[in-house]
């Protein structure tokens, strides 16, 4: 790559191979984050490590700026397990919610157009009160801001939820989500329900009931989530963007 570019930026989250780069971004949360890239990047490489450097879609920034304080009371639940949700955690979660007396709680369910279970999910949502199905939505930030707790998978969505101070119950649906989800739970920003193959609808129902019964814990999770994401700044002021622009004009 040095034959084609004077300055190289890399986005990585594995820390298992060397990079000849000048800037490296790893937006995930790990133990001993600062040591992950020792001997994997040049000594002068500028590192941006941790969720405070997460690259989020532009839609999240104005929503964060207008976000009201969270009270910990749960009046709205958001369910989102990614666009495809191959193991159908969405239906499992809806089954869990049917086990509880949710009263007037609003439920928003988000799926992608390629979800193979969408017809079944649509039928279930239609039969549940105050439940709305969103397919291939483009207002995810608004749905997260309106929710009081999210139930979903790990991965990049973890940091989107944290950016908006949204407490969550997380099901690990892929092996590469395991460490990040465990660290997020350790940081007090989510409840780690474990691997999807081991999580039952009853487990989800019990975890959600626990959240309903403990608004103080939900408030603490929200505060922890906002804290690990760092100081709010619009995308053009992202430290990585500023670094690249400064070097470009140096």
UniProtKB/TrEMBL annotation:
One Pfam family, short name: Glyco_tran_28_C
Domain of life: Bacteria
Domain Glycosyl transferase family 28 C-terminal, residue spans: 98-224
InterPro entries, per the entry: Glyco_trans_28_C (IPR007235), PseG (IPR020023)
Single annotated GO MF: hexosyltransferase activity
Binding site for substrate: 57, 160
Family matches, as PANTHER family: GLYCOSYLTRANSFERASE, UDP-N-ACETYLGLUCOSAMINE--N-ACETYLMURAMYL-(PENTAPEPTIDE) PYROPHOSPHORYL-UNDECAPRENOL N-ACETYLGLUCOSAMINE TRANSFERASE 1
Protein name: Pseudaminic acid biosynthesis-associated protein PseG
Origin species: Acetonema longum DSM 6540
